[in-house]
Amino acid sequence: MQQRPTLLAPAAVAMRLLLPLVLALAAAALLAGCGSDKFDLSSPQVAPGGTVSAEQVFDGFGCTGGNVSPELRWKHVPAGTKSFAVTVFDPDAPTGSGFWHWTIFDIPASASSLARDAGKPGNGVAPAGSVQGYTDFGASGYGGPCPPAGDPAHRYVFTIHALKVDSLGLDANAPGALVSFSARANEIASTSFTAKYGRPGTPTSHEIPPTVSGFTLSSAEVPAGGTVPAEQVFDGFGCTGANVSPGLEWTGAPQGTEGFVLTMYDPDAPTGSGFWHWLVFDIPATATSIPKGAGIPGASPAGGTQGYTDFGVSAYGGPCPPAGDKPHRYVFTLYAVKSADLASQGLGPTSTGGLIGFVTRSAALARAEFTATYGR
């Protein structure tokens, strides 16, 4: 005789049907509880997704804010943290590399906040031992938002890095890209939030200037599409090149050219803003070349002025990508500009690639460029 199946009580049936849902909800609750312990950054003055207030906006370049850095707070710090680094970066700035507004690093692991106005060097508000890095405004300390009038609102990314080292080994002359590179290389974890700021006005174009037929740039040492030779590679940070700047020649500048700006830029550097390797502006319109080895400190290649690279020097700095990276691209660009005196617009030997890039775009007629690669 076939045995009849055992019938379950209605309550048991309900429990069997609900058990998967109960387990799923329990798992979700557990995950949510873990999520609440995630490394987190916030500010009482700047809301994530909100608008930066006037108190935090820059004072200058047409902006009239208070230029006071906001209070920042963080919690749920990962185990093993020995120090912190904080950065504020605008990825929308029309410079070719964004714009670094603040870096402060070597913040002790005991800190859980930065007080309001901690971004003013020397006022005693920042944690003892912390260092304020060199921003794209050409100074150490906080510099608030100040996008071009009429631009769509720019994004301002506030980031904190929890680091496995007590110090990055950098000083107040370290540009934003170098601070970011060092922080990323030594981080245990990082977290960010983004706010926006824009200001009214008539929109102006900050487009990358076009290439034009006949305007060319070349080098006898660095072949276009080829590999940067060891002689031009950096000497330091694990690289063993000679750090000799290449010779460059150009021809066919467009009508109306009053001067030139030369840049060498690595868009693949793991910094969040690429890496400026060489900057020369106010090259006279009569120049047609820069000799090999002209990028030494204190020199005036082809009569121009060398800007402040992301190595933190006003001189040529050759390729030196992280070991094991896919070969990086090194873009050599010559801009024909309609001004013979960009120094009159505030540029000098301590001007960073971000600031030089911004001024150059507003003055450029055309560009000539070539790209080479290097990896190790």
UniProtKB/TrEMBL annotation:
Q: Which PANTHER family match?
A: PEBP (PHOSPHATIDYLETHANOLAMINE-BINDING PROTEIN) FAMILY PROTEIN, UNCHARACTERIZED PROTEIN YBCL-RELATED
Q: Which NCBIfam families match?
A: YbhB/YbcL family Raf kinase inhibitor-like protein
Q: Which domain of life is it from?
A: Bacteria
The record's PROSITE patterns line, in alphabetical order, gives:
PROKAR_LIPOPROTEIN (PS51257)
The organism's taxonomic lineage, starting at the top: Bacteria, Pseudomonadati, Myxococcota, Myxococcia, Myxococcales
Do you know which Pfam families this protein is assigned to? PBP
Q: What name does the UniProt record give this protein?
A: YbhB/YbcL family Raf kinase inhibitor-like protein
Q: Which SUPFAM superfamilies match?
A: PEBP-like
Coiled coil region boundaries:
none
